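Dear H.,

Thanks for agreeing to be a second pair of eyes. The structure we're designing against is below in token form, covering all 131 positions.
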């Protein structure tokens, strides 16, 4: 466990791996999530602004829940966030499927280029002895 500063309130706390907010803020966030989830259960066609107004939970937090995959689209749901690359509406995550595929292809191309360059370097870096 590491000591970290809570990104929400600034309190120092003993953080488990990957934890960014203190236990108090985590409990508060979970309570907000429950309010949002319960509202959406009763009002499945609600939009993010409607949910925010009805539950008193900020739109940014609701979008965070969607991006984390905690609020999954149900039929008739209007809860959407924007793809961080192209801006297309998506129901979860950070990127739409097209941008995700494009990023994966770019990463694969980059890896193959590095491998190719490394093999070229290995061939050129051979040492020879002088007779």
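And this is the sequence the design step returned. I haven't edited it by hand at all.
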């Amino acid at each position: 466990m590491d000591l970290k500063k809570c990104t929400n309130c600034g309190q120092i706390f003993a953080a488990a791996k990957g934890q960014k907010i203190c236990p108090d803020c985590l409990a508060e966030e979970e309570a907000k999530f429950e309010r949002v989830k319960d509202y959406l259960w009763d009002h499945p066609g609600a939009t993010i602004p409607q949910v925010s107004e009805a539950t008193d939970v900020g739109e940014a937090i609701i979008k965070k829940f969607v991006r984390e995959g905690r609020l999954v689209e149900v039929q008739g749901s209007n809860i959407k966030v924007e793809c961080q690359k192209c801006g297309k509406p998506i129901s979860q995550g950070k990127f739409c499927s097209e941008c995700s595929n494009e990023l994966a292809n770019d990463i694969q191309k980059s890896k193959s280029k590095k491998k190719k360059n490394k093999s070229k370097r290995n061939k050129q870096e051979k040492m020879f002895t002088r007779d």
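Two observations from my side: The chain has two domains: 22-79, 80-116. Residues 33 and 65 are 8 Å apart (CA to CA).

Warmly,
E.
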